[in-house]
Design a protein that fits this description.
Elements: H1 33-39, H2 48-61, H3 69-79, E1 88-90, E2 97-99, E3 114-118, E4 141-145, H4 146-152, E5 156-157, E6 164-169, E7 175-183, E8 186-189, H5 191-208, H6 241-254, H7 259-272, H8 277-280, H9 283-289, H10 298-308, H11 316-331, H12 335-340, H13 342-382
Helix pairs in contact: 2-9, 5-6, 10-11, 10-13, 11-13
Length: 383
């Protein structure tokens, strides 16, 4: 990951000479940034079990609509809509496009169609869910090509050596796209899907564990049957809970949050009322289960707050002050903290680039205007 150069702090108000105020709309942020920040306002803990408990309480109390399994099929055209491909959805493991109306309602149920994938299989939940609760949560259920789904089956997630290739199929039974590898009851997604899978697993674990198991204080609006005891070793092929966590953290870091995840997180939020916090803030995973020294806890929170406030700045002078505060917060992070806060670092880099580009453009306009004025004076002197 690119690091922010320390000399960025040399930016000064001197650059603002002759420059007018610029709307914050020039910054490349999505429209829901402010609403997203409001959603996480109750989170005050900086790390560990305290943060885990607060996230559990938040995503359960804001989960106002528990979807049915049938609704997961119908909502897919909203949560997993394939942009630019009418009536199509994005398949989870391959990210290929499958027509929406060729789905698991088809009488043949054959290859090239899709069904509702429990990323954390029902059989690995200890009986906690079937087709309700976590078994019908839009943050959990994803479209999966029928043959892809059946080949993954109830395999745990993990990494395999020399495993067999797993392909989705076309409607005429031919291999379509590579979706992963499996061997000995273990399924390994492709690298660009590992983070997606890890963040779903972290969400399900955090949400559907009974609050006492995750240092929470409430199970929110869900019925008691939705909650129970979950272990990462239920879903991850690992020798211990610690090894399972290590693999999840590695996958979370290997495959950063992408636009597919962000788009469907927002769509599921609009329907259910809650969000997947590990998509909005992938650094939470390290802050909870990683090294307690990561980012210094409070330092990480300070950096996130500073980046969140960038969008609130109005004039260029205010933008510069906000950027410098975010840079100072960034420089207080450890190396691990910077890696864990990659999404916020990217936002800061984007804000800096946008600011500098605006300053360059407006200063160029000012210089051009000044040159024009001087030319006019010189011309007047010759007449």
């Amino acid at each position: 990951m690119q690091k922010i150069a320390k000399n960025i702090l040399s930016l000064s108000a001197a650059l603002l000479i002759g420059v007018s105020a610029v709307s914050v709309g020039a910054f490349p942020y999505s429209e829901n940034t402010s609403a997203e920040a409001d959603y996480y306002a109750p989170i005050t803990a900086a790390e560990g079990s305290a943060l885990l408990g607060q996230l559990h309480d938040l995503i359960t109390t804001t989960h106002t609509h528990y979807s049915s399994y049938s609704e997961c099929r119908d909502y897919a055209h909203t949560t997993d809509f394939a942009a630019g491909a009418e009536k199509s959805v994005i398949e989870f493991y391959t990210h290929e496009t499958i027509l929406y109306y060729i789905n698991d309602l088809s009488t043949s149920g054959g290859q090239g169609t899709w069904n509702r994938e429990h990323v954390w299989p029902k059989s690995l939940s200890g009986g906690l869910w079937g087709t309700d609760g976590a078994g019908a949560d839009l943050h959990h259920i994803r479209p999966s090509e029928v043959k892809m789904n059946s080949q993954r089956g109830n395999d745990k997630f993990g990494e395999v050596n020399g495993g067999g290739e797993v392909y989705s199929k076309t409607t005429d039974g031919k291999n379509s796209q590579l979706g992963g590898y499996h061997a000995g009851g273990v399924f390994e997604p492709l690298d660009n899907v590992k983070g997606d899978a890890a963040r779903i697993v972290l969400y399900v674990y955090t949400h559907y564990n009974t609050y006492a198991n995750v240092n929470g204080s409430t199970d929110g609006n869900g019925t008691s049957s939705c909650f129970g005891t979950l272990h990462f070793t239920n879903i991850m092929s690992a020798s211990s809970e610690e090894a399972a966590v290590e693999l999840l953290l590695a996958w979370n870091k290997l495959d950063p949050v992408d636009e597919i995840e962000r788009t469907r997180n927002e769509a599921a939020y609009e329907i259910q009322g809650n969000r997947n916090p590990f998509i909005d803030h992938p650094e939470y995973a390290e802050m909870i289960w990683g090294n307690a020294e990561i980012g210094g806890g409070e330092d990480t929170s300070r950096f996130h707050r500073a980046v969140s406030e960038l969008r609130e700045s109005g004039t260029l002078k205010e933008q510069l002050a906000a950027i410098n505060e975010a840079i100072r917060a960034y420089q207080a992070l450890t190396e691990q903290g910077r890696d864990a806060a990659a999404e916020d670092v990217a936002k800061l880099q984007a804000a800096i680039s946008a600011y500098n580009e605006t300053v360059r453009a407006q200063n160029a306009e000012a210089v051009a205007a000044e040159g024009g004025a001087l030319g006019a004076v010189a011309g007047g002197g010759r007449s």
